[in-house]
Predict the structure.
Amino acid sequence: MTTDPDRGTSGSGLRRRLEQWGAFSVRTRITVAFVLVSAIALFSAGFFVFTIEVRAIERDVRAQIDQELAEFEQLAVRGFDETGSTFDDAASLLRVFMERNVPDDDELLIGYAGDRAAVISPTRYAETYSDPGTGLRDLIHRAVVPLLETGGAERIDDPEHGDVIVTVQPVDAQGSPGALVVVNFLADEYSELDSFIRTYAVLAILMLGAIAVLSSFQAGRLLRPVRTLRETAQSLSASDLSRRIPEQGNDDITDLTRTVNQMFDRLEQAFRTQREFLDDAGHELKTPLTIMSGHLELLDPHDPADVEATRELLLDETDRMSRLVHELILLAKLDRPDFLDPTDVEVAPLTTRVWEKCRALGPRSWVLDAAAETTSCLDEQRITQAMVQLAQNATKHTGEGDEIGIGSALIGDRVAFWVRDTGPGVGPEDKDVIFERFGRGRVAEGDEGFGLGLSIVHGIATAHEGTLTVDDEHPHGARFTLSLPLAGPHRKEDQPWPAS
Ligand SMILES: Nc1ncnc2c1ncn2[C@@H]1O[C@H](COP(=O)(O)OP(=O)(O)O)[C@@H](O)[C@H]1O
Ligand SMILES: [Mg+2]
């Protein structure tokens, strides 16, 4: 038995619908959202006005009815006409009331004597009422009869005559029962409101159309840089990273464009560095390999002396190669986030230990310049490795009897480690080159190095968020200084998300 995971619950159906919605372009989605919000606003406004108007109509009608009833009550209580005589029966009371009362245009007054309509006011609807063909008389009569004794109001919703309110006020004039019936026709008022709402609806639809066109146009305009960005990104390849997206305007999309362009800059730079690095590494490895295969080809296997000499040479070359591979691996590791394992370290004992260790590098006059009495957050092993590397260079560039000084000092919120020597120093033209990978200076000629040592030291300093600098010593010599923040490098997971 198989089940379709997309069916089953209505939740997954909704998700699928949302996914389909996500497949539309941002431009379409913005347009639809705009139109929807506008539609809700327009509909709410219309509905609000409609409700208020209906209330106002109903209130007016109610006031009208109340006024008629009050006037009628006044007459009935006083109970006599102008001649001074009291009314004999309900019919005459009603007749007098209607003579004195001028009802509204959309109102009809009917006087009931007993359960029959006896008098009607001469208004617009009187004729319709009297014409039996219209059925209005029967309609009203049916509503009046049950209310004749109790009084009250009834609303009739008739398709032919519209909304009608029938109000009955019973009266008893000297034992003769009757009633005043006030009939209000709402059709006129409502038809006005109807035509207003219809006009509003047509206008609202036209406006929604206009909003759709405008928002689609504007969304397209705003998103154009994003489209250009996508097209440019698609056309870029690793071999050609030189294209950039044109930066226009000064809004946040321009910011995005600028950020992406900067990213391309860094990518291009990284690719170039990597290519150069591979070139250099390949070149450096090729040389010992060529030497080795050359010697092997010329080797006379039957000559023990030749075999011995070649063996020595090959061991030497493989040794060189393995040193190079070792340094390459270290360089590759430098950019990894887990390269460092920083802990709180006492700087003074560390400096002494480094000095002790370096003394074994060669017969020089090793001086412990200073040791900072402080604690710093750093990776002890990596710093020792860097200092030994610097001391090795110093040994290489000095002779017996030269002085090499090692020390550390606290400078503000940073700790500085240095190695200084009394050798020839670094020429000004070399100062930029020597920190680069495979970068070597003038003094290195004829020496075995690869030019990777200082770039490893530089990498260790950078990983600590510190710096590596070189200065001249007087009268001659070089001083290499590692300057590290006391607090140590920021841990990646400690960094808060940047605010958007
Ligand atoms: N103590 C020093 N005195 C003078 N020059 C130095 C010293 N240390 C390094 N250099 C220069 O810096 C260059 C790069 O050093 P490094 O990266 O360790 O490579 P390598 O030692 O393999 O040549 C050296 O070739 C040398 O020219
Ligand atoms: Mg070196």
Remarks:
- Residues 393-394, 397, 421, 423-426, 430, 434, 440-441, 443-444, 449-455, 478 surround adenosine-5'-diphosphate (ligand 1) (CB under 6 Å).
- The first strand starts at residue 107 and ends at 113.
- The domain at 252-332 is CATH 1.10.287.130 (Helix Hairpins).
- The chain has a mean pLDDT of 87.
